[in-house]
Each structure stands twice: as structure tokens, then as C-alpha cells.
Amino acid sequence: MRRRVITGAVVTATGLAFLAAVPGSATAEPGNAVDYTVVAADGTSAAEATAAIKAAGGTIVTGNDAVGVYRVTSADTGFGTKAVKSGALIGASERRAIGRAPNGLEKIERDVRRGGSAAHGSKKLDPLDDKLWGLAMVRADKARKIESGDRGVTVGILDTGLDASNPDLAPHFSTKLSRNFAPDLVDVDGACEVASCVDPIGTDDNGHGTHVAGTIGAAANGVGLSGIAPDVTLVELKGGQDSGYFFLDPVVNALTHAADSGLDVVNMSFYVDPWLYNCTANPADSAEDQAEQRAIIAAMKRALNYAHRKGVTLVGALGNNHEDLGKPRTDVSSPDYGADPYPREIDNNSCWDLPVEGPHVIGVSSVGPSKRKADYSNYGVEQISVAAPGGFARDGFGTPTYNTPGNRILSSYPLKVLIEEGLVDAAGNILPAGEGLVFKDCTNAGKCGYYTYLQGTSMAAPHAAGVAALIVSKYGKRDWRRGGVTMDPKAVERQLYRTAAEQSCPEPRLVSYANEGRPAEFDAYCEGGRQFNGFYGYGIVDAYAAVGGR
Predict the structure, then answer these.
(1) What would the mean pLDDT of 400-407 be, rounded to a whole number?
(2) Quick one: average pLDDT of 530-547?
(3) CATH superfamily name and code, 104-492
């Protein structure tokens, strides 16, 4: 059961959930064990961290030695204070929800004018492929003639789950490699669907992960639609709660599992809450909040570095806050859970939007059908790598396609979630509210898949992840020790950037979205030249060129 419906483009990566302890922060009562997440200090060995946790009065339930993150229980009311004083630990936090579901631009605007789809699309391959303008823009339809993906290439969907019952996702879904790292938590997800509170592999009670997965690798099988790399293997890495929250243990454990299991690509369409930017020592923050953010930064950087060293190509959404990440505005939305937000001036040298500003992450901005930067998309020469189709509902101002569903990205979506959203009835029939927004297609055997439109950099990142998977499929080497094909992430990046379709900054470079109804805060200035700039990075990803086409 989901506490709230996430119908949007970017689900927040809420959570890396721990609070670095300071005196008085622990709330354990004598005799009642409390769960904590503990982060070891840099340079601390597993043995030293274990000893420090034990000395502070804690018992390790699970540990991730690779990145120094531990789940701990303790009935000692002073555990948090003792842990932070040990010197071997950055801090201990009571395990609690941090962050909230997104709103505003991050939601699909369900009240848009119905009407027909935008008049752009790809050569029809599967029944709904004519609605996939993004597939055509990145030339994935042409790329398929050269390379459609190798089953030995594995792509991890680090997200809210994956509905493997969809006939487009079932054929190449790996149950063996998939894991649920985020058991349901009653306080944020509502009542558990199963007795263990661990949702079965191959389910998604949120929908976001299923949408991402379809863009990357929906099978070209004559039903529904097809993805960028339709023959690669899809792996569920459930790191987000059904409600859209993400916590430290699930996210870090998902990344290390991806690394240890030999996954080739991981898509991360989320950002880390409760802080829009995690800063090392923002003067607006309390000492407690500063410590929390330092721990988040340390844990995320370790996990990303670990995955990269193990051969994982990391792809991340650039974010939907319509700002230059190298020149961040005042943060007025943090913390977005547990306390009222307050204004925070952001120092670009000591603050990070994670994971996209973390090490080795390919940052992807979003464009619409016209190739304009989407109004909501973050940008900037400091963090952008490439651009990709992510949807822009208000693209095509002054034309019949303006503010129509077809300007967004169509992909797979769970029937259960569509029923909860009131778009499909219990019998699987599309309701009037879903007309033009939801599509249904069935196999000859009567197995039906459902599809809907979303927009955001969450939808752009999987286009790039799919192209990365094609690159590994085409140029990677067989490595049976890793279970299939492997390729150095640095080489994947080079090929992705080298073959991206260069796109110059618009003229004038200062772009206003006033015609689209946006205030001046959305104005965006494009820096850089044709070969690399703040709107498009090295260019819009090009699947055909990436696998050797011209």
C-alpha cells in the first residue's frame, strides 16, 4: 500500500536516512532496542568500526563493510552520543524517514488537454512505438539493425521496483540478480502487502521504476512498446520505498550489490533528501544537521566509487529544479521532512546534489520533442554530461502539440498503480480520466501490459542508460567470471560522449519560458560551445552512432 501516489517524473531519493548523533539526539528508552544507521569514519577498518559500535553499546544487525555503513540496534539511551565520540564513527542515527514525495513540476500534469498525441514519433516497431519520439530522436530504432543489446549485459534499475508481469519487461528480467533492499515500513508505506513486509521481486507499488525500466529495455516483441536496448537483461534494485522514500541502507546496499554481482549499468533517477544540497558546513545549518550532511556525502561517495571500481557505469538524472548546478540558487526547500524548511545560501564548493554530483556519475539533462531544454530541467557546464529525451509538456508553444500528453515520455507502468490513480478500473479497462494518457496492449495469449506518460530528467536518464548498455553490448568483452559481458566504465563514457549528437546553445543564449507560463526564475543561460555546453553537455545521446552507425 502506498501512502501517496507518485505520478511524477522524478521520485526523490529521499532518505539516505541517518542522523549523525549529537548529545541528546538518541531517543531509546531503557529496555527498548532502537534501530540506528551507523557510518564509519574515513579510513576506519571494518574491525575498528565493529569494535566502536560494540563499545558504544550497539549490536550490528547487518553491515556493509565495503562502504562502512551498518544497521545497528541498541537499548542504550546514550548510544548515539557514545558513537559520535568514538572517533571511528561519523555518527549514528535513529532509523527514520527522511524526505517526502515530490510535487509540483515533478508530477505529471494529469489535467492537460486530452487531444491527440504530438505529431512526432519513430518508425513503428512495436504497436506503441509510433508514440516514442524519444526512440527516434536518439536513433535507437536504427541502432537496432546493428546492435539491439546482449543478454549478457545487465542493467540495474535502482528505483522503486519493477513490474515484471508486464509482457514487455518479463522476457529479459533477471529474478536471480534482482533484490529488494527496501522492506515496507508501515509509517511511510502503509500496511504491508505481504507478511514479511518484503515485496516480492518483480513488483512495483509505486510505478516510477517500472517506467524507467521500459525506456531502457522493453522487449521488441510485437506487443506494447520497445526500449532503447530491447535485448539486454533488466535487474531490479529496489532501493526506494513504495511511498517514494529512499533510505541509506537500501541505496548503499543496492549499489554494492550491483558492483559485486557484475552489473554493467545502473540507472539512478533520484536525488538524496532531506537536503536538496548536502553541505559540509553550511552556516545556516545546526551542528547536528551539518554532521548529517557530511555523513550522507561520505556514504554516497564511497558507494559510487565502489561501484565504479567494480565496472559499473553509473547514470543519473540531473534534477528538476530548473537551475544551473554550478550556480545554485538559495535552497528554500530543505529540510523537506522532519522540520520546516528554511533559506540556505549554497556554497558551490562545499555542497553537492547527490548522486548526480557524486563521482563517476553521468549527469543527464532533459529535452522535449523540439530538442529544447525542458523548462524544469537542471543544467550547467559543471555537472552535465549529455542530454536525452525526458519530455517537455509545454514544448511546441503556438502549435497543436502544445501541452499535449505526447510531448512526454510513454513507458510501462503497473496496472495496480493506475487503478489507485483512478485511470484504470479493477477489470483493467481504461477509464475516461485515463483516455489519451494510458494505453493497454495484450499478447495473443491475453497477457496485457499498461503504459502511461511521465516527464522529467528521470525519463531522460534511462535513455542514456539504454545507450550505455548498447555500447557495452557492442564493444564489451566476454567475461564469464562476471556472468556475461564487461566494459570499463571510462571507455563506455568516452564512447557515449564521442558519439552524442552535438547541439549548439540557442540564440539568444538566455532562454525565457514566459510563453510557457513560467516566471523569470525559470530563465536559463546556456554557456559553452557546440562541442560542450550547459544545456546539452557533449550532445543528445545517439544510439545509432554509439554502435557504429553514421
Answers:
(1) 96
(2) 98
(3) Peptidase S8/S53 domain (3.40.50.200)
**Is the CATH code 2.40.128 the one for domain 34-94?**
no
Using the structure block, give the residue that is written with the C-alpha cell 542508460: 465
Cα–Cα dist 304/489, whole Å: 12
Q: What is the pTM of this model?
A: 0.90
Letter string b/e over residues 168-192, b meaning 16 or more CB atoms within 10 A of that residue's CB: bbbbbbbeebbbbbbbbbeebbbeb
Give the bridge partners for 450, in sequence order.
440
Note the pLDDT of residue 248: 77
SS3 state at 146: coil
Using alpha carbons only, give the angle 436, 441, 445 rounded to the nearest 5 degrees: 165
CATH 3.30.70 domain span(s) along the chain:
34-94
CA gap 265, 323 in Å, rounded: 27
**End-to-end alpha carbon distance in the chain:** 48
Q: Which three cell numbers stand for residue 439?
A: 494505453
| Cis bond upstream, residue 343 (ω within 30) | no
Where do the H-state alpha helices sit in 206-286?
A: 208-217, 248-260
Grid cell 558546513 in the structure block, residue: 281
User: Is pLDDT at 272 greater than 90 in this prediction?
Assistant: no
Q: Which helix H or strand E contains 525, and what residues bound it?
A: strand 524-525
Identify the three-state secondary structure at position 187: helix
As annotated, the residues of the chain forming the CATH 3.40.50.200 domain(s) are: 104-492
Chain centre distance of CA 187 = 23
Mean pLDDT is lowest, of 230-244, 317-331, 473-487, for: 473-487
Task: State the cell numbers at 139.
Answer: 536513433
Strand intervals (E) in 282-324: 313-317
The C-alpha atoms of residue 31 and residue 198 are separated, in whole angstroms, by 27
pLDDT digits (tens, 9 = 90+) for 122-165: 445 899 999 999 999 999 999 999 999 999 999 999 999 999 99
